[in-house]
Amino acid sequence: MLAIFNSTVAYGPEELRSPTGQISTSPDVKKSSSALLSSFLDTLPQSISVTMEEMATMAFTHSNQSLLKPRSFAVKDDCFCLFEGALENLPSLRQQYGLSKSVDEVMFVIEAYKTFRDRAPYPASKMVGHLEGQFAFVLYDRCTKTVFTATDSNGRIPLYWGITADGCLAFSDDAELLKAACGKSLASFPQGCFYSSALGLRSYEYPKNKVMGIPIMDGEMLSMKTSLLPWCKLY
Q: Is the peptide bond before 190 cis (omega within 30 degrees of 0)?
């Protein structure tokens, strides 16, 4: 799966945009976001892609997916979501949120996100703490131009993010695909965390703390260890 966002919608952490240190001896070669999308579609011609007003693009395919970790895509009320994995507690979540048995994982994420978004001051990120299983998802709310992304606490579904040559923030479950477009501005998404274009990168186990990415050498890829910073230290 692939999601690309214009920098006016989601800027991403500064540590990802400006990696420090010698990560690799190879040149920092990057591609534009349009070239990245073309590479994905050319490699996987059965893929489906959707572009929202040049602000966001999402693409996915069922090709080569795991039977236990399927990929899915859904749209409802201007919320677009890519989901990979499976929720072990989906039946109880349906009951908790008053949803029908036909609601699958990707539709649940959209419905739960909307529930918390519309019940301010409750943060939409609160819903991630209710999820059990193996998952990674990327959601784009076109109404508020918000990007919301999360992975499970054990990182059982790999997710990567990086910055393209034209400054777009990209997410994918394919590290090699992003490496060709993002060069050294590429990292694995921290497990047990969520990223919101409104709040930044946070741990959903400790939501009042900001997560600071610490760039370290990990072969050809920037690895971002996380360090929790108390909220008060941001001011």
A: no
CA-based max dimension of the chain: 54
**Which residue pairs, CB below 8 angstroms and at least 24 apart, start in 154-159?**
154/191, 154/192, 155/188, 155/191, 155/192, 156/85, 157/69, 157/84, 157/85, 158/188, 159/188, 159/189
- Residue pLDDT, tens place only, 116-133: 888 866 777 788 988 999
Q: Are 131 and 89 in contact (CB under 8 A)?
A: yes
Collapsing DSSP states into helix, strand and coil, what is residue 38?
helix
- Reported as a single tens digit per residue, the pLDDT across 180-232 is 899 888 888 988 889 999 888 888 877 666 676 665 545 455 555 555 443 32
